[in-house]
Each structure stands twice: as structure tokens, then as C-alpha cells.
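REVIEWER CHECKLIST
Item 1: Sequence provided? yes
Item 2: Single chain? yes
Item 3: Sequence as submitted:
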Amino acid sequence: MELDLLKETDPLLRKFSDPWDFATDGDPTELVKHMTKIMFENNGIGLAAPQVGVMKRLFIMGNTDKLFVCINPTLISGGESYRDLEGCLSFPNLWLQVSRYKEILAYYQDIQGNVIETKLDGLIARVYQHELDHLDGVCFDTRVGPVTLDLAKRKRKRKSR
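Item 4: Structure as written out by the authors:
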């Protein structure tokens, strides 16, 4: 399986993903293995299948201590919101202040297809929401205004010189 990280201009990043069907799509282990390698090679803490060109509702998040595999995820509820700095592997060196829920109730299937319902908070809740957006074809650059985005892109350009 050959997968590459899509960059911000790729139109696939703006498309809605199809549900993972364990009966027809099979075991996601190989996909997860390749996605995990790509995520860690790029120093990420989350990666959605659409970011590697696989238009399925699956993402991974975490670190070498604990990796979450979230298949067909939904966000059941969220509480108070807060703004914090976010980046994205498909948007190298672009950092934006994005508003997300501090705490969420999440629902997803694990790699074996078991249903998980859990409360997440802090950074892991933020990553879950960011990756869930990718499955809906929403990139974090649309969660800020045009002036803020333009300033962040200019800052990125200056730093890359």
C-alpha cells in the first residue's frame, strides 16, 4: 500500500468521506499501519484517511504511548468552547487560532469494529474535532476569517525564507 500525505491544494481534502464498512472494506489494520507511519514521520498527533487520499471515515490520533483508531466517528455533544493554536499535516507550518469544544462526548468504532462511546477533553478532544472535520471535507483554514488566514500564510512565507 503506497500512501502519500496530500497537501492543502488537493481538492480531495474538501470532499465528504464515505463510511467504513467492515463487510465490504475489510480489516483496516494495514491502512492504519501506513497512516501511523506517515503521522509519526511528520511529527503529527492526528491523521485522517482523506489526508492520504483514502475517502473513508477513519482517523488516528495520539502518540507512541496511546494511539486511538476512530472509525465512523461522530460527535454526540460538546460543551464550552475555547480558542487555541492548531496546525495540520496537510498545511505545513501554518498555525491558526481555532475555536473548539473543551470537552466532548465522542462515538466511534475501534479497529475491530467495537462501538466506543467516551468523554474526551483537552488536546485529545481538540484533535478528535479537527480530524472529524477532515472526514466532512472541512479543513481548519475555513474555521478562521480571511484576514486571519492571510496573515498566517504571510507569516508562514516569511519563516520559510
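Item 5: Key structural point noted by reviewer: The chain is about 30% helix and 35% strand.
Item 6: Recommendation: ____
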